Structure formats: C-alpha cells, structure tokens
Amino acid sequence: MGTGSEPLAGFAVGVTAARRHEELAALLERRGARVVLAPAIRLIPLSDDAELLAATRACLEPPLDHVVVTTGIGFRAWLETADGWGLRDALVARLGASDIVARGPKARGAVRSAGLQERWSPESESCDEVLRHLLEKDLAGARIAVQLYGERLPELTGALRDAGATVIEIPVYRWTRTDDTTPLRRLVGQAVAGTVDAIAFTSAPAVAATLAVAAEDDLEERLLEALRTHVVAACVGPVTARALTDRDVPTVQPERARIGALARAVVADLPRRRARRLEVGGAALELRGHAVVLDGRLRPIAPAPMAILRALARRPGHVVSRAELCGVLPSRLQEAGDAWARPREARPQADEHAVEMAVARLRRGLGRAGIVETVVKRGYRLACDPRPGDVGLGGRVVPGA
C-alpha cells in the first residue's frame, strides 16, 4: 500500500491511443494511475497506394496555389513516400512555391524540417479556423492540396470546392479499427460499470471507434451517460472532442494539443471530479476510483466493497438498508467490465448474504475499526453525524470490527 500522495493513486484511466500509448501510459502511471490499455484504432500507411501516387502527381502539375498540412507525421510520410518514387525534390519545389497552411505546431515543425516555410497557422489547431482563413481569399479557379489525416474531411474539402477551388486530397494514411477489439470492449464495459474513472482520447477516429464498438454491444447510450456523469472524457483537443461534445458529453482538454499536456490535464481534473472526502470515525477518509486514502495510506478496495462504500457515502451517517445495498452490488462479470449487454433490471440481483460478505471485505480492506457500523435489523452506515434533514436512524448501532 502506498501513501496516496500521488494525485492519480487509486484511479483507473483508459488509454485508447494507437500511437504513443506507451508515453501517455507512463506519464499517467508516474502520477499513480492504474492504466487500462485499450487501443481503439491502428494506422495503415499508404506508401504503395495508387491514389496517393495519383494525388502526388496532380500536385506537380502547375499551378498549386495552396497546401493544407494537417499533421506532422502525415506530411513527413508523404515526402518519404515521394522520395521512394523519385518525386521528392520536385514535390518540395512545388510546395515551396505555394501558400502553405500548417494546422498546428507539429505540422509547422514538419514543414520547416523539409526546408519549407508556412504562410499561416491557426492558434486553435482547428480545421474550422483553417477553412475560415482560406475562405477569406478568392478561391475561384484555385488548386488546393489538402493532406488528410486518417479520414476524409468533407466539411473542409466540400466548402473549398463550393468556393470554386479544385481540391486535391492527399490520403497519406488511414485509420482503421484495431484487429482485436476485446480490450476496447472491456474498457467500454468498465466505464459503464463504473470501474474506470477516465478515458483518454488522442484522436477523433479513436472516439468514433470506441462509440462504434459500444453501439455493436448495445452500450452506446449507456457509455455516453457514463461519460456525462461518472467517467471523465479527456481529449487532446477540440477536433478529438467534437463527436463527444456534439452528444452533450463534457470533456477535459489541455490548452495545447500535446500528450504531456493531456496527462497534466487528467492529473489536474480527475481528483477534483472523482475524489470524495469525509470525516468518519474520527479519521479523514478519501474515496477515489478503486481505493481509499485512510490515515494517510492508500488502501485498494475491490469493486463490490467499493460499491457498498459509495452507497454509504452518498448519505453519510444515515442508515442504508441491506435491500438497498443489494441493488448496488456488481456481479463478478460486471466487476470485470464484461457481459454488460443486459440492463441492470434484467440481471439477477445480489442477496443480503452477498451484502454482508461485501461489508466484511470492506472492513478488512479499510483496516481500521469503527468506520462502517451495523445498525441492527436496519442495515449499515458510516460512523459520522448525519447531515441535516436525514431521518432518524433507529435501531441499535454495533460498531464495525
């Protein structure tokens, strides 16, 4: 058991990233988090793709008025692939004679490392801002190359075509669902079950893939509700977050769209949203995702005992009946995040013996007597004064062992 001084100790964070997931996981684990790796997508380079070759040759035909560089990795891959075709020097020369728009610092860095210079870059790293900038120009008859980043951008390219431009789409790579969706399905189940506290997204395709997997298991609405209530959705930027914000899901976003900044945003926001502090039995008790901090020590708590503790903490000092506690206990499958296709009312409910066993496990996990009290013939309560407005407890109180 640790001291609980790490800000994310006791919390579980899902990581859906395909690229650099080791880096993000290490940053979160360094601050105490338990990381659940569940890659949602994988990157497929298109170095041998005929469409990319045709698009590259189209860019070499003058004139090329504007170039939109959306990602650093995509721009570098484009130049490397062109080099394999013997077209790099001609392509760099053509790009250098055009008006280059770089979407964000990574794209700017890739452009400059190629010996080129962007003419403009948005502050927000948003394609919407890129579009507004271009639409301020007379685009009638203009030829514009748009480097895609894993998927088509119909809102951007369609608006440019409507303004009279000829758009050349550069499909450097594409995203596709990961081959093995089992980890992602389990993560979705854990989010619905409440055994994961946050999910980190580093790309819009990862969000789309996660929602698609949830929909296939009839869990999309329940996942969205979990993200609206008890699971923090951490997104690297507004483009990544859009599919969630459009569905009324609040998101946590860093000021800069960087992996390190995303980790810092989770560190700053997750404890504020998900930690609960109480004075119980003369001690300071802090509830975290899957652990508590008691007497300054982090004590991991299994899902079933934690479900009991959270139910008691919702009404500190107030008795909660065994019958009511039966309804909050997860099954073994639910604890693992599996078999969540059936709604709660269709699943068999735990009995009072299961509640008693969970309470016993909770007391052992807390490692301190007097936190959870038994109210004879009534149920259980936390050993603290009831809040104003609570009804009388009644019954004989037996302090927990």
Describe this protein's structure.
The protein has 16 helices and 19 strands. It is elongated and about 85 Å long. With 401 residues, it is an alpha/beta fold. Mean pLDDT is 88; it is low at 333-337, 339-348 and 389-395. Helix 1 (21-30) crosses helix 12 (259-274), helix 9 packs across helix 10 (220-229) and helix 9 (204-216) runs parallel beside helix 11 (238-245). The longest helix is centred in the middle third of the chain and has 16 residues, at 259-274. It has three domains: 12-40 and 178-274, Rossmann fold (3-Layer(aba) Sandwich); 44-175, Rossmann fold (3-Layer(aba) Sandwich); 276-398, Arc Repressor Mutant, subunit A, CATH 1.10.10.10.
TL;DR?
This protein is an alpha/beta fold. Helices cover about 40% and strands about 20% of the residues.
How many domains make up the coordinates?
Answer: 3
> What is the level 1 CATH name of the largest domain?
Alpha Beta
Main sheet specs: 5 strands, parallel
Cross-sheet strand order for the largest sheet: 2-1-9-10-11
Please give the count of helices: 16
Which CATH architecture of the largest domain would you pick? 3-Layer(aba) Sandwich
The whole-number mean of residue pLDDT values reads 88
Work out the number of β strands: 19
* Low-confidence parts: 333-337, 339-348, 389-395
CATH topology of the largest domain: Rossmann fold
How far apart the termini lie comes to: 21 Å
Shape: elongated
